[in-house]
Amino acid sequence: MARPDDRPLRRLPQLAPRKATLERCVFCPKLCRSACPVSNAEPRETLTPWGKMSMAYFTANESVALAPSFAEPAWACTGCFGCREHCDHHNDVTGTLFAARSALVEAGEGPASAKRVLERFTESSAALGKMAADPRVASSVDDGAKVAVLVGCEHARRGTEGGVDTVRAVARLTGSKVALVNVCCGAPLLYAGDHTRFVQQGERIAKELERRERVVVGDAGCAAALRVHHAEAGVKMPVPVEHFSELAARELGKLGRLDGELASGPVRWHDPCQLGRGLGVYDAPRQVLSRALGRAPDEFERRREDARCSGAGGLLPVTMPDIASKIAEQRLDDHDRSGGGTIVTACASSMRSFEKRGTGTVLDLATVVMRALEAAERGEP
Q1: What is the pTM for the complete model shown?
Q2: 55, 120, 206, 252: most buried by Cβ count inside 10 Å?
Q3: Domains of the chain
């Protein structure tokens, strides 16, 4: 006999394939609430994983109105996968909430801030074209190269040291020039709620990579977009996709030993959510830092699978900036309690969030690798 409330998801039919995933959360006793950075920063029931999934479920099956108050919780997620790690069912809350965003936008609902991201997407992605013309990377670039590098829009837009060092370091680690992928991975579209255009971006990247042998991705969020989210959307990349840390870990013998202030003071690794919980890559960046520093990197109290989110993902700084700031401050408080020093990460959005709050030195992993490569060239093993 069917449950009395077992109704089809008629209002948001795009969520029908995820009905079982939604129901696991809706009828759960909320054991993962402590894992959500959003509801920890803003303790409201509707912002727990249970609350966000419930609002999507009840909107979809027409139990509640299609209204902003029921739609907006879908955007109260950084996509950090923290709740999944604490769930006995390993429930895909992140993927389901991203699907809910697209369904809600298609139904006419969604935060104004997310809609602005969708309207401005073409303008934002154009920043990637500037990277190839940057004189700091020109000597490392050849459009005919077999190894491609996708730096990431955040690095390209800001012209960061980490973005430049990603290109230069990949060229040195592979021993050849590289081609730049001047197409955005589409993650902002996924986060804002445009699944159709997100898939189109994936298809553009796949087309671009047909003449390459592999692609190395600098930003953790972009790597997860290609390997996880585009794959889930049915877009298959024609070449292997690896994160920069995985390449560097295979080439440890090319790295020299750093000295000076960076090597002597605390150097703490921040696990990017998309790299760690998203791709399962935890050891590679630690191996790289251990080689460059001559010792294991310093750690946060909460690390690896249990690492705190920086609050910078999933479009949260745009849709809920105050909550995003609180999450970043909590992570920096952890850093200070652990002894401070330099933070190293592989997430451009986390770097921006930490730097905005005036913490100490924040470096991209590629910058550390580039310095270690230069140290090896100077004969410092």
Answers
A1: 0.89
A2: 55
A3: 13-110 (1.10.1060), 125-250 (3.40.50), 252-377 (3.40.50)
